[in-house]
């Protein structure tokens, strides 16, 4: 990895945020990302899979959709997919800075916002008027794996306009997002992209750190390891598209890990057990709250869907977190 000196630009505002500016790192990231996208291969921590390796699974999804339609279950699953729930979760930490006690975060992931007509309206309705300190998005903004992204910009703009986070918007990319999409949401919508980068949010003399790793399921590089396992002294929140780097983040001293990617299984057995997680590692972290070492984590089932636009024994979600300091005796 090329080493660059990190500089900061004071952008003011209620949180007095300092925004990392590292053009050399971003240029290197974009070049590597573009090359991986062009190859069609899947790069993950366990190795590289050639282009077309998932063709059999894609064919199986098409057959599954035909079967659902033939037995009358397709519309049932589609109605469930449109029904997005709002989850509210309180998390306690021993080391949360006192100035951040009660800090609120809206977590959005796997929007796939152009997947079917009306999905964007359902997501916007679920979050409209949300008054939170921070909004984070952990990837998969569009439905397709590749191709154009211009079609998602209007609904994404409406979504951003519907939320009023004091400390703004942060995002990482997923396996459905190319580097051009990432740059577009940053430049056109003001969503701060973290591409194996970190940022600081301040409250007076206190601060927390946000770390964002690029997608590790399809576009993994060692930079994701470096940014997550660097040894963090601040209270640190890791944003990663999938839970596949949870061990590295916990070992690196992260306190909270927010992810998605799995859709909570999307199609599950009764009781919510996923049939497919699309995880190379950490399949046991496919849904809901979990803990690795001292680090707390959450894998959201996401707001959107992929493949057939249906859900069974699984619900789409938007998630509100409230962080509090654990009372000391």
Short description:
The chain is of the alpha/beta class and 329 residues long. It is built from eight helices and 18 strands. It is globular, with a radius of gyration of 19 Å.
Give structural notes.
The protein has 329 residues and is an alpha/beta fold. It has helices at 23-39, 55-70, 74-82, 119-127, 153-161, 179-189, 222-228, 246-251; strands at residues 7-10, 18-21, 42-44, 47-49, 84-93, 103-108, 134-138, 169-172, 192-193, 197-203, 206-212, 235-239, 256-259, 268-269, 273-274, 288-292, 295-299, 316-325. The chain has a single domain (50-325), classed as Purple Acid Phosphatase, chain A, domain 2, CATH 3.60.21. The strands form 5 sheets. It has a 6-stranded mixed beta sheet. A 6-stranded mixed beta sheet has the order 10-11-12-13-17-16. A two-stranded antiparallel sheet has the order 1-2. Helix 4 (119-127) packs parallel to helix 5 (153-161) and helix 5 packs across helix 6. The radius of gyration is 19 Å and the shape is globular. The N and C termini lie far apart (45 Å).
């Amino acid at each position: 990895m090329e080493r660059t000196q990190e500089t900061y630009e004071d952008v003011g505002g209620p949180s007095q945020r300092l925004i990392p500016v590292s053009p050399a790192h971003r240029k290197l990231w974009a070049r590597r990302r573009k090359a991986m996208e062009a190859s069609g291969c899947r790069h993950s921590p366990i190795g590289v899979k050639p282009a077309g390796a998932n063709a059999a699974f894609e064919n199986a999804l098409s057959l599954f959709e035909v079967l659902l339609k033939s037995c009358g279950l397709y519309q049932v699953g589609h109605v469930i997919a449109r029904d997005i729930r709002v989850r509210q979760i309180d998390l306690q930490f021993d080391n949360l800075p006192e100035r951040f006690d009660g800090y609120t975060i809206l977590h959005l992931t796997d929007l796939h916002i152009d997947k079917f007509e009306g999905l964007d309206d359902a997501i916007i309705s679920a979050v409209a008027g949300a008054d939170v300190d921070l909004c984070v998005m952990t990837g998969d903004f569009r439905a397709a794996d590749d191709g154009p992204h211009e079609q998602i910009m209007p609904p994404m703009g409406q979504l951003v306009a519907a939320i009023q986070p004091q400390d703004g918007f942060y995002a990482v990319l997923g396996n459905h997002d190319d580097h051009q999409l990432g740059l577009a949401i940053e430049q056109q919508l003001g969503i701060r992209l973290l591409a194996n980068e970190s940022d600081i949010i301040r409250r007076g003399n206190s601060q927390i750190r946000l770390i964002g790793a690029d997608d590790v399921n399809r576009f993994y590089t060692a930079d994701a390891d470096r940014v997550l396992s660097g040894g963090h002294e601040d209270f640190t929140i890791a944003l990663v598209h999938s839970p596949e780097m949870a061990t590295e983040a916990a070992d690196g001293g992260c306190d909270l890990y927010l992810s998605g990617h799995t859709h909570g299984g999307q199609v599950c057995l009764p009781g919510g057990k996923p049939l497919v997680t699309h995880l190379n590692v950490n399949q046991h972290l496919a849904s809901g709250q979990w803990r690795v070492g001292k680090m707390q984590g959450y894998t959201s089932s996401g707001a959107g869907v992929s493949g057939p636009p249906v859900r069974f024994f699984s619900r789409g979600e938007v998630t509100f977190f409230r962080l509090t300091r654990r009372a000391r005796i």
